[in-house]
Amino acid sequence: MDVFIPILVLIGAGLLATSRPAYRLRRSRPATVLVAGGWVSVLVGVVLGPSVTGLIDRESIFNAVPLLALGLGWIGMLVGLQFRWSLLRSLPRAVWLIAAADFLVSAAVFGTLGYALLSRWLPEPSPALLTIPLVFLVAGSLGWSVETRSLGAHFDRRPIVLVRAAGALAGGLAILAFGVATKLVSVDALGALSLTPDRAALKLLHSVLLALAIGFVGRGMIRLAGSSQGHQFTVFLGLVAFIAGSANQLDCSPLITAMCTGAVIANIRSQGIQQFEAFIFRAEHTFAILFGLLTGLLLEPVTTPLLLLGALAFVAARIVFKPLVMGFGFRSVRPEWALDRHAGMLPLLRIGACRQAPLMLALGVSLVLVEPSTFHKELLGLLVLVGIASELMPAIFAWRAHIKPDDPADEERPA
Amino acid sequence: MKRDANSWLSILVAIGVLVCFVLAGNAFQVAQPLSAESDPFGRAIDAFPPGLVATAKAVGMLLLGGWLFGLLASRLGSSRITGYLVFGILASPMFGAFLFGDDVNWVLSKEQQPYLLLVNDLAITIIALTAGCKIDLREVRDTFKSVSLILAFEFTLVLVAVASLMTFMLSKNPVFSEYGGLGTVVLVAIVIAIVATANSPAVVIAVLSETKAKGIMASTSVSVTVCKDLLLIVAFAVALGLSVNAASTARAQALSDDSPPEAVATAPATDGDVAPPAEGTPPEQKSIALKLTKQIGGSLVFGVLTGVALAWYLRRTNAYLAIILTLGSFAIALISAQYGFKPLLVGLAAGITIANRYKDYKPDLFNAIENLSVPVFVLFFAVAGTKIDPGLLGQVWGYVLALFSLRAVSVWMGTGLGCKFSGMDPPASRWLWTAFIPQAGISLALATVIAEEFSAFAFSDKVYAILLSTIACNELIGPILFKYGLERAGEVQKD
Fold first, then answer.
1. What is the DSSP string of A118-158?
2. Which of B21, B68, B115 shows the shortest C-beta gap to A246?
3. pLDDT for A360-390, tens place per residue?
4. pTM of the prediction?
5. Which residue of A has its CA nearest to B210?
6. FRET partner for A308 with CA separation of 20 to 30 A, picked from A61, A81, B357, B467?
7. Which of B34, B69, B316 is most worth mutating to test chain A (most A CB atoms within 10 A of its CB)?
C-alpha cells in the first residue's frame, strides 16, 4: 500500500482544519460542537479506513495498536488525576446526587434499550454473551460531555461545576463498570463463554495493587527526573506506557489500572507531581485528535436498519432523560446557589447534557482491544453514531432558540 | 553526602522494583480471556499478532529502565548512552536465553522485537534533524579541507587495515578456494571493511547533546561523521554489488561444472538489491547507479522539501511543535521505507535546510528537538541494545578482539594523520579519534545486509557474528571514550 496518499490526506486535512475558512466555519454551532468533541478526526479516520476508501489498511491499523494501548493509559490517567481526595471532599452534595441519579437512570433506560437491541440483533443471546456489550452500551451512555465552551454562551462558574464534576464522576464510574464487565466473561476450555465473577474481583484487586505499586515507584522516578524537561518527559511517557502495557499483560483493564494510578499519583504530595499533571492535561487535545483518528479507523460503520434504529432510540433517550437528570441537579441547588440569576443559560446547559462524553470512545477502543471482532467494531460504530447525533442536538436546539454563537475569541476564554 | 547516598539508593531501588514488576508480570501473565475464533455471528476475528499489544509495556519498560540505567551510568562518570545500551542488552530475549535457555520468560519477548524496531527509523529521523540543525554550511565550507583530509585518512586506513585482516581470515575459508579465489575474497573483505569504517552519527549527536560540548572537536566530529555516512552509502552499495556479483558468478560457475544444468537453475539465488548477472550485459552497474541516485538523490530532495514544509509550518502556525515533529518523523520513516530513501539523509537534509535557509526558525525547532531528544535517545539506544546477542560474543571473541583492536588503532592513526595534515591544533586533534569509535544502527543495518546477501555462503554466519559482536563492543565502549575525549579536549560545557 502506498503510504504517501494517506499522509498527504492527513496533512491536507490538517491544513484545511487550520485555514481561515475553517476558522470562520467553526463559528457555526454544529461545526463548533463537532470540532470540540473530536468527532471530525473520527470522521477523517472513517474515511481513510478500510470500511470507506481503504487508504489505510488493516495491517497498518494493527501497527498502531501499541499507540492505542498508550492512549488508553493516558486517558485513564487523565480521569484518575481528577480524583484528588481534597477536591472530592469539597464537591457539593448536588454533584454526587446527579452522578448517582444519572447512573440509576442510565442503567434502567439504556440497559433496557440495550437489552432490547442486543436480544434482537444477536443470534443466540445468552447472559454471558450479553454481559460485555450490554454493560458497554450502558457505560457508554453514562454522563455527558464536560466541555461547555462550545455551547456558546458565557456561563457562570457554579452551574458549570455541576456539569463538569458530575460528568467526570460518571466517566470514572463508566470506566470502572466496563472494566469489571470485561473481566466477568471468559472463554472456557470448550470454547464457550461463561461468567466468572471471582475472576473479575481478582482482576480489580490486581489493578488496584498494580496502580498502588506503580504510583509509588513513579513518584520516586518523577523526583529523580528533577526539573529537566527532557528527563521529565521520558519518565512521564515511560510511566504511561508501562502502566497500560502491564495492565494488558496481566489481563487487567488498562483504563481502570491507569485511572487508579492517576488517583494514587494525584493524592501523593511530592516534587514534580504538578508538572506530571500538567504534562498529562496539556497533551489532551493532541491525544484526542490521534485517538479520534484511530477510533475512526477501527470502527465498522453502522449500516443495518436495526442498528440505525437502535442508535436513534439511544439518541432519543438521551434527549429525553439527560436534561431531566441535569434539571434535577439544578433544582437541588437552586436556592443556595441563586441559580435564578442564571435562568437564561440553564436550559442550554440542560440540553447540553444530551451530548455523549467523548471519553466514552476510549471504552469502545478498549472493547476492540479486548477482542478485535467485527461485532465489537460495530458496537464502536454504534457508539460513535450516537455520539455525533447527540452532539448535534444542542446545536440544533440553540439554532431553533435563535441563540447566536459567540465570537471564537470568546470561546478561548476560560470558563 | 547523605543526599547523594539517598539518590543512589533511589535509583537502585527503582531499577530493582521495575525489574521485579516485569518478571512477576511475565510469571503471572495470562492469555487473552476472550480468545474465541469467531464473533457471535460466526465472522472470523482478526486476532492481533502475538506480542503486539504488550509492545506498549516494552516501550515503557525500555524508557524507564533505560533512563534509570543512563542515570546510573552518569553517576558512575560514564556516558548515559552506554547505560541505555546496557539496559537494552540486559532486557533483550537473547540475554535471557544466554543465561537461562530459550524457554525463559524474560523482560522482553522475541515477538515484541519487530514492533520495537518500528521506533528506530522514527528516532533516526529526529536524530538526523538534530545533526542537520547543527551543521552550518558556511562553517563546513571553511573547514572543508580539514574535514575531507581527516575523512580520507581515517576512512582509507581503517578500510585497508580491516580489509587485509578479513582477506587473511576469509582466504582460509574453503568456500573461496572452490568458488572465485582471491579476487572474490578481496571484494568480500572490502565490503566487510566498509562496515568497520562506519561510525554512529546518532551516538555522536547524543553524546554532544548530553555533554553540551562546543568547540572544534565537537563540530568536526559531526561534519566528518555525517560526510562519512554519505560516502559509506555510495561505497557500500558499489562494493556490495560487485562482490555479490563476483561471488555469485563464481559459485554458479563452480556448480555448473559439478552438476547438471537444471541444478544450476534451481540453485538458491541471492535476493538482494542487485539483480543477478545477465548474459552479455552488465546490468548490475546500471542497477547500482540507479539505486544510488534514487536513494541518495531522492532522500536529499525529499529532505529539502520536508525542511521547506517544516519552515512553512513554523512561520504559519508554530504550535504543538513536539507533536508535529514526532508525527512528521513517523511519516518520513514510513515514506522512506516505502520508496527506499534513507531516513538519516532525509532528516539531515531537512535540518540543514532549516539551519541554513530559514535561520529565524532554527531556535524554535532546536528547542523542540532538545525536549524530545532524551526519550528518543533512550528508546533508540535501548532498542539498539536489544539486538546484541551476548551468546555470539562468546563464540567468536578471538576474532572480535582482533578486529576491535585493529579498527581502534587504525582509527587513531588515520585521524591523527588527517589532523596533522589539516593543521588542526591539540588538544582537539589528539582526542578527535574517539568520536569515530562508536558504532550503532547503520553499522548493524549494513552487517545485516551482508548476512542476507551472502546467506548462501558458508562464511556468512560467522562473519555476521564477528561483525555484530565487534559493533556491540564499539557501541558500548564508544560513547564512554568519546565523552572522555571531549572532556580532555576541554569542550564539555559545565552546568
1. HHHHSSS--HHHHHHHHHHHHHHHSS-----GGG-S---HH
2. B21
3. 888 888 888 888 888 989 999 999 999 888 8
4. 0.79
5. A230
6. A61
7. B34
